[in-house]
Specification:
18% strand
């Protein structure tokens, strides 16, 4: 099956199944962390995929199922909740010999699992950045919004206060959809107001707050889609061409939102920490790196010390695309790359670091990477401290 067919079939699986789940394959799944657990670790919110009720601490429970992988081969697998002793986790185990997707080179691939009947499931594993982003865009998700049940509609589960703030904002909109900058700014303002978060709290835990901003923007975007597309959904399309045109418009808007979101929120975080930087400046060959610290003027000043210059690219996924940043700023040898990618194989990381690409990821994502590279990866907070130190 070709890659293009894989992503289309993964999308179709979500649409035809009664419940579906997606996550990135992490080092913990492949035992690349050095841990002894086996099988895919699934977040506690995944239990409805297999069980009627959540597991209860103090006892284990399991369910045996058949899973068809890549539309090709089947495994007799076991979904288990470990609740005894110190454990409190769900895992999908038992795949038989020569199962390909628990190998270390699958770290960072996206797995999609859907329930067809009570004991029969299908699953697809997507390996390329393009396929991953096409799949996530089809459902309006970003990489930070994985490791969870995939919503089967635009209905979102949010608390009443947040819902009221969303609705108040939507009522002020004089356009169908705000720009990506306006959407990011307003989502951030809404969650800060809802949670009563002040600047010192943001500066204390920037990694947590960044992910909270991203998640709130996703929820707000969904709320706007619900409001704007309600008439479109209720009324029948006049033709297949009209349907395709509308579907493509929705998909393109989702892709655009996800592509710009990370950059917008990082920019705001750097402003909160009062760092000096330029966003999307022009360097050699009309290249436009996402961030240059302290500014493009210093970069273009040949007498400015190169060890005072810092480069940061922002890519939601980067398994394939990290090479794109290598020639974006010739004066800066080490290229920092912020990503929401939850795991990359040791072989790929080795190649990245050999090419002086240093990863920056949300703090909670570091454990998804192979153990031997975890100390080399910066959290957002660590990167900010590094920039602040260089600029002093």
């Amino acid at each position: 099956m070709t890659e293009n067919n894989l992503v289309n079939n993964a999308i179709n699986l979500v649409n035809k199944s009664d419940i579906a789940f997606t996550k990135f394959i992490t080092a913990n799944d492949t035992v690349a962390t050095g841990a002894h657990q086996s099988g895919f670790y699934l977040h506690r919110n995944s239990y409805p995929l297999f069980f009627d009720k959540a597991g209860v601490k103090g006892s284990n429970k399991d369910k045996f199922v058949k899973i068809k992988w890549q539309g090709d081969f089947e495994t007799e697998s076991r979904f288990i909740y470990y609740g005894t002793g110190t454990r409190n986790e769900y895992r999908l185990t038992r795949f038989g010999r020569n199962f390909p997707f628990l190998q270390e080179n699958n770290i960072g691939n996206l797995i999609v699992i859907g329930r067809i009947t009570d004991d029969y499931y299908e699953a697809f594993v997507l390996s390329s950045d393009d396929d991953t982003e096409d799949f996530l865009s089809a459902f309006g998700l970003s990489p930070s919004e994985t490791n969870r049940i995939i919503p089967k509609s635009n209905v979102i589960d949010i608390d009443a206060k947040l819902e009221d703030l969303f609705q108040s904002y939507i009522e002020t909109l004089k356009v169908d959809f705000p720009t990506s900058t306006e959407l990011a700014d307003n989502a951030r303002g809404i969650i800060i107001k809802a949670q009563n978060i002040n600047t010192p709290e943001i500066k204390k835990m920037p990694d947590r707050e960044l992910l909270r901003w991203l998640d709130t923007e996703y929820q707000l975007f969904k709320a706007i889609e619900n409001d704007r597309y309600a008439p479109l959904i209720k009324n029948p399309f006049k033709s297949i061409d009209d349907f395709i045109k509308s579907a493509n418009s929705v998909l393109q808007r989702r892709k655009s939102r996800a592509g710009k979101s990370l950059e917008h929120h990082l920019s705001k975080m750097f402003n909160i920490f009062e760092l000096k930087f330029d966003e999307q400046p022009v360097t050699e060959g009309n290249k436009k790196p996402d961030f240059i610290f302290p500014d493009i003027e210093s970069y273009r000043n040949g007498s400015f010390k190169t060890d005072k210059l810092i480069f940061l690219a922002a890519k939601t996924t980067c398994k394939d695309r990290w090479r794109q940043i290598l020639n974006e700023a010739d004066r800066i040898r080490v290229k920092h790359l912020f990503t929401l990618q939850q795991g990359i194989s040791s072989n790929q990381l080795k190649e990245m670091y050999e090419n002086d690409v240093k990863l920056v990821v949300p703090k909670d994502y570091i454990s998804a990477y192979p153990k031997e590279y975890q100390r080399k990866i910066y959290s957002l907070g660590t990167f900010i401290k590094y920039v602040d130190y260089v600029q002093k």
